[in-house]
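Standup notes
- DV: blocked on the single-chain target, sequence here:
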Amino acid sequence: RYVKGKGYQFSSPFTDKSKDKANMRHVWQRIDEFLDGTEQESKSLAELNEELFAPPYGVKAGLLPIIYMVAYLVNKHELALYEQGRYKPYFTEDMLERFVKRPDEFEFQRFRITGLRASIFEQYSKVVHGDSKQRTLLELAKPLASFMGGLPEYTHKTRRGVSEKAIKVRNAFSLAKSPERLLFEEIPQAIGFSDIRSDQNSERMEAFSQVLIEVLRELKNAYDTLLTNQKALLAQAFNIDPNLPLADVRKILAGNCHGLENYTVDTQGIRALVARITKSSGSEGEWLENILMFLGNKPTNRWQDSDRDTAEYRLVDFSRRIIDLEKLRLHDKDRAKGFDGDFDVFLLRSIKKGGAIHDEVVAVDKGSAKQIVYTKEQIRLALGELGDKELMLGALAVVVDEFLIAYKSYETKSDEQFEVREAGMAAGEEK
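- DV (later): unblocked, structure below
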C-alpha cells in the first residue's frame, strides 16, 4: 500500500479494506495466530505449509514463500529470525534464496515488551539510538547485531587488542541463540551486571548503560587503535618521533629510504619494503596499511594476534637492515669524493651476549685492495690451520669484536689528542 510521505510499503491486508484483499485476510490471520504461538519457543513457518495448502485456504505452493516473506517484513520489528538455530539480525540475498528452497531451516520468534522490561529497554535505546524512546526488542537487537557484524575481522579475533569485558560481549554476540537472552542475560552478565530483567534501580541501570557504551566504543575503535600503535612502532624502529603525525612519519621515512633499493639485491625482503615505504601514491592510511600488510603477510583488518607478533618481529629485523643500508649509502657518498674509480663499501658489526654493539663502515677501492692482499691471505691461512668451521667463525668473531672495540677506543683518543692540540695552538696564539 502507499503511505503518504513514505512511499509504498508492505502491510497487513487488515489495514486495507478493499474487497480484493478479503480472501488473503484469512491466510494472514492464521499466520498471525501461528506467530503469536512462538513467543515461548521459535518455530518454522514451514509447519503451516500443509494446513495452508488445504481447504479452506488453498494457497499455491509457489506463492506461500512470498506470503511468508511479506508477513516477516510487516512484523520484522518484533520477529527474531533464526537459521539452523543461530540468530540472524536480518535476511540477506543468500538467505532469501535458501529460505525459498528450504523454509524448514528457518525459524521465527515473536517478542513483545511488557511489564518490568521497559526500564532496560530505555537504557538500550540510549545506547543504540541516543534517546530514551521505548522500542521493541528486535528494534534494539538488530542494530547491535549489525554493529558487531560490521567490525573488522581483527576486532572479532584479537584477545590482546581489547579488554576482557569487550571479549565477553563479543563472545555473547557470536554465540547468541536468542535476542531476548542476549539483551537481558548475556550482555549484562558480560559487563558485570546480573538480574537485569527486573532491576528498577535507576542509578544502576544508568551505570549499566555507561559501561555498555564504553565497551561498544572500545570494540569500534580497536582496529584504529591497532593502526595507531603500529604507526608508533614503525616510527620508533627508524628512530623517528612516534608522536609525529602519520603524514610526517611518511615524509621522513620515505626521504631516508629513497634510493636504498640500489644497495641490496634482496628483492623479496628489503627492496620490497623500501618500495612500499617510498611509494608516493595513495593516502597516508593506505600507505601505512600497505606496509603492515607486507610485514604481517595479510591485510591488517584480517590480522590475528599471531600476525601482529609476526609483523612486529619482521619490522625490527627489516628496520635494522635498512638502517645498515643507510650507513652504507652515507659512507659510499662520503668516500666517493676521495676515490677515483669503483670501490666497495662494507659494514662490520659485532654483537656479543651481554656486551655492546660495535660496528664500522669501511670502503675498499682498487688501491686499498692491493695493499691488503698479503694480510688477507695470511688471515685465510691462519684460519685454515684451525681445521674446524666453528673454530674459524669463533676466531673471526673474537678478532672482529676486539678489533672494533680497540678501533673505537683509538678513534676516541685520537679525537681527544686532536682537541688538546687545537687548544694548545689556540693558547699559543693568544700569548
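- Follow-up: The radius of gyration is 36 Å.
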